[in-house]
Amino acid sequence: MLICFDKGMTFKSNHRSNDRLDLLSQTTKNTMRLFQYKTAKATASIAMAFFAITIHSQTILEDNFSLQSGYEDMAFYSLENGVVAQSPLADWHIALDVRPMGSGARINCGTGMSLYFYGGLDNWLTADLDTWDMPEPLRNDQSDWANAAFNQDGDGMFDLGWGIYDIITHEVHSEKMYIIQFPDGTWKQFALVSLVSGTYSYQLADVGGENEISASVSKSDYEGKLFAYCNITSGEAMDLEPEEPWDFVFHSYLEDLGGGTYYGVVGALAHPDVTVQQVDGLQDPFTDGDFDAASFSMATNEVGYDWKTYSPGAGYVLESERCYFVSANDQSVWRMVMTGFGGSATGDITIGKVEASGTSVEQVTSTHQVLAYPNPVISGRNLTLEAARQFENAVFNVRSVTGSVVASFAPTSFPFQLNTSKFKSGYYFLESTSTLGQPLQSRFIVQ
């Protein structure tokens, strides 16, 4: 068990030597560690579906960064390149989904903001907190970027929560107004009025309608990004996401701990093109265990916050027997281990990582299966295929659920990258016959 104290980055262990824990920051010891592991298990194999991953003297890489004291910042993190952007969390109040089909609006709950439904927009000039029957606050679903606070109470189809989508005009218009409580305790009324031709319009005022301001945000100004981050008191929209690909954004946010209990946490929320598999019970999370292509999750909060727990008098206890396999934006599968957390005093975070898909893949026993990952795969991303050597140069067919062949190819070697940009969302079947006449079948999902 790793224990990280709030003050500084000191680690203690009740069952591992200090030398073992120091390996994360000492490249020489990393090499010795992996060499000893390979020597001790020279005859063993680590099953990965029908394949085994063997790490050949790969160095454990380490990234250290800080969200600053009190978790003031949000940090966009890439497993390939480390932190690629960072900015103060309190700079924005709501985030508008600027993807081509996006219509979500998130509240910045990490700073203590709260969102409430008030009633119809016809109450704009008569709203009164004294006569208002305050409902439960509306909260972001942290498992799905699209299911944001303003989208609660929608029907998942044409009712988006905050507004109604018109299937003829493709416009969204709203007749709702909300009350927002800011971190300093002040109250404002707010309406996300419309989304027309890729432009959001909103208005903000004091409760009762005085000091009204209006603003608009065009999706075209944020091409390739997820959100425009808006300071609604100034009417300013900010482009905070980096141009470089990122895998996680680390910051404080409100999370459902179960049973409707919400609490402020600090953690990692994944980019929608990133999938994650959590593996627990590993004696050495940098070398033990394997990933299962069918077990990667698309939940935004699969890494989340629970890689640490707070122990009164001891500080933060890290999950020392856990790793996350991450199918990242650089098309690689990484083994990620959370190794340090400094708490609110420093906001320090330390991550250890090894590129799992960059290691050699050895055939084990199966000659009639193909490993396809990540599965499900996001449309437009590559699906990695691993198969036995007998299937090199064999013709592979991809069939839709109706049985029609939608793609054919003949890999000259494995791993093989199949681009899914021309595949519609849905289930697909993969089939082939090896040069020895052995049949192969598999299936995957495109989302």
Q: Explain this structure to me?
A:
It is a single chain. This protein has 447 residues and is mostly beta strands. It folds into 3 domains: 2-83 and 244-355, no CATH class; 93-238, no CATH class; 366-446, Immunoglobulin-like. 4% of the residues lie in helices and 41% in strands. It is built from 2 helices and 34 strands. The chain has helices spanning 18-21, 27-40, and strands spanning 2-4, 11-13, 47-48, 51-54, 61-66, 73-78, 82-88, 94-97, 105-107, 114-120, 164-165, 172-173, 176-181, 187-196, 199-206, 213-218, 227-231, 236-238, 248-256, 262-270, 275-279, 308-311, 315-318, 323-327, 333-341, 348-355, 360-363, 370-373, 382-387, 396-400, 405-409, 416-419, 426-433, 439-446. The strands form 8 sheets. Strands 10, 11, 12, 13, 14, 15 and 16 form a 7-stranded antiparallel β-sheet that branches. It has a 5-stranded antiparallel β-sheet with strand order 5-26-25-24-21, with no helix packed on it. It has a 4-stranded antiparallel β-sheet with strand order 2-1-23-22, with no helix packed on it. Strand 24 (323-327) and strand 25 form a beta hairpin. It is globular, with a radius of gyration of 25 Å. Residues 1-57 and 358-367 have low confidence and may be disordered.
